[in-house]
Amino acid sequence: MKAMAVFPSSRELRLVEHPEPELSGARQVKLRILETGICGTDREIASFAYGMAPGDCAYLILGHEALGEVVEVGGEATSLAPGDLAVLTVRRPCPHEHCVPCIHERQDFCLTGDFTERGIKEAHGYMAEYAVEDERFLVRVPPELRNVAVLTEPLTVAEKAMEQAHVLMSRMPGGDDGSRRRPAVVLGAGPIGLLGAMKLRDCGYETWVYSRDEPDSANFKIVSAMGARFVDAQRHSPGELAEMAGDIGLVYEAAGVAKVSFEVLGELGVNGVFIFSGIPALKAPLEVDSERIMRNMVLKNQAIAGTVNAGHASYKQALTDLASFLRRFPSAVNAMITARVPLEGAREDLLRRGGVKTVVDMV
Ligand SMILES: [Zn+2]
Ligand SMILES: [Zn+2]
């Protein structure tokens, strides 16, 4: 079968002819991949900044955001049947018996770092014609979500962030209910930020998106279409953002830019919660207003959490929420995928970002 792969040692990115995977266990499921999303992580892997091939292979097949159609199931697989649509999760548990999160199938909290990730770390991904996976790592997709289900994996990042925010808000009397009456801010208007903003809008938050995107960009239009407010980070400082938004109760960071993130953290309100999900490139140390941030953290009961990857429940929640987004702001959801390219055309987008979300159409 054809697949898009990176060769980390020879620094190549190209199509390969890879053996078609076959069922080797009774609970396995074989999928024909229909669509695979391209994201910033894929672009980092394609530029050899990240990514590890499986031990027995010179290359890594890319792709971790995929929608497939079941073509074959093992004798003991009960949750899926041929013809069903399914999305695939990314991270697989580490082999260590002492890793409590992995034992509980929460490898997104793995303690050892010895997990694998399909399309990212030591396991082939889904930018290929077929994939085989244990049914535990698949989630069935309702047919009506066929055109948007490829957005499930990036949405799970926001789902887990909101799960963490919920835990932190539960410290306070009134829990989420009290927080929902205060404005929420999303940093960044890339796919993860936009999907996070949709999640906040769907939960009833007055939502402000703070981003460097141009006011005539597709990203800006999506923000408007979901009923969120856009603040141009090129023209307005974090202090001005706080003046406009008011008493910020929650920040969902999805930009991966440390400087602006810490500046916005300095504007967080009383009992506020700040969730980091972006991964900045390592640079020289940064000067931040550390005394002010520390004073606020203590005197305003603030909480910060970082979040990576997501568990199975976040995938189920993401599919439920995608259906809700489609009902409430269909034009915003449908505008997310700005290009569909054939597998042969994926290389160009992996090397140069364009639009909001490019999807590799395998069919
Ligand atoms: Zn991704
Ligand atoms: Zn583990």
Describe the protein in words.
The protein has twelve helices and 19 strands. By secondary structure, it is α/β, with parallel strands linked by helices. The protein folds into two domains: 2-148 and 336-361, Quinone Oxidoreductase, Chain A, domain 1, CATH 3.90.180; 155-306, NAD(P)-binding Rossmann-like Domain (Rossmann fold, 3-Layer(aba) Sandwich), CATH 3.40.50.720. Strands 3, 5, 6, 10, 11, 18 and 19 form a seven-stranded mixed β-sheet that branches. A six-stranded parallel β-sheet has the order 14-13-12-15-16-17, sandwiched between helices. Strands 2-1-4 form a three-stranded antiparallel β-sheet, with no helix packed on it. The longest helix is centred in the middle third of the chain and has 18 residues, at 152-169. The structure holds zinc ion (2 copies). One zinc ion is lined by residues 93-94, 96, 99, 101-102, 107, 110-112, 115.
Features of the shown structure:
363 residues; alpha/beta; 2 domains; six-stranded parallel beta sheet; globular; binds zinc ion
Any chance you could write out the topology, listing elements then pairs?
Layout: E1 2-7, E2 12-17, E3 28-38, H1 40-46, E4 60-61, E5 65-73, E6 85-88, E7 91-92, H2 100-103, E8 116-118, E9 122-123, E10 130-134, E11 138-141, H3 152-169, H4 175-180, E12 184-187, H5 191-202, E13 207-211, H6 218-225, E14 229-232, H7 238-245, E15 250-253, H8 258-265, E16 273-276, H9 290-299, E17 303-306, H10 312-328, H11 330-334, E18 337-341, H12 346-351, E19 357-361
Helix pairs in contact: 3-5, 3-10
